[in-house]
Amino acid sequence: MSALSELNEEIRHCQKCELARYRNQVVPGEGVENADIMFIGEAPGRNEDQQGRPFVGPAGKFLDELLDLIDLNRQQIYIANVIKCRPQGNRDPLPQEIITCRPWLERQIELINPQIIVTLGRYSMALFFPQKSIGKIHGTAEKHDDIIYYAMYHPAAALHQQNLRETIKVDMLKIPQLLAQAKNITETEKKQEIKQMNMFEV
Fold it and tell me: What is the pTM of this model?
């Protein structure tokens, strides 16, 4: 069993907050373990709580459609949420729940080590773009500690506001270019490291 699989099994048995009393299943996340791109949503909904998988309801269908736009599928990325259990009645996550669950997400990020993290929705965005508004920064990216963070609306937003559908698609179409930039930066850094090593060997 891989380190990520072991971590996700640990998450499935979490009892650290009140949400454990009401859930049907924990939703740790799923996808390829060395994904270049990691998508982080907000919290499981009713369908996710029943199946133990992220983004399997209507918002998940739109996410699949968005991935198809850039020739990706779920087997090429990793999908997780800020919190791993469904809040009762699909309410918003509480600040303390986010704080309690955050170490699980941080360990997932550490193990997957993605080149790009795409935040889906304002709660995910707030972890990495504090004090900013999703309406202002969606479709923009920042780089910290060798990871590019890219803010997007949650796919569910398009289900409630049809006018956001095209906006979300336009933002999604920027991801391949970001990934190409990330890979180019990585290759440049590797070449610089090799060059420095060769200098020391002389």
Answer: 0.90
Task: Give the whole-angstrom CA distance, residue 132 versus residue 99.
Answer: 18
Rg (CA), the chain: 18
Question: Which residues have a Cβ under 8 Å from the Cβ of 84 and sit 6 or more positions away?
Answer: 11, 14, 26, 27, 28, 29, 44, 101, 104
- In the structure encoding, which two tokens stand for residue 2, read together? 């891989």
Q: What is the pLDDT of residue 5?
A: 96
Percent of the chain with pLDDT over 70: 91
Q: What number does CATH give the domain 3-201?
A: 3.40.470.10
In 3D, which of 97, 59, 95, 93 has the Cα closest to residue 79?
59
Provide the Cα torsion 23, 98, 92, 43; round to 10°.
-60
Q: Could you give the CA distance from residue 24 to residue 33 in angstroms, rounded to a whole number?
A: 25
Q: What is the dihedral of CA 54, 170, 132, 28, to 10 degrees?
A: 10
Structure tokens at 9: 């099994």
Q: Give the separation between CA 110 and CA 103, rounded to whole angstroms.
A: 10
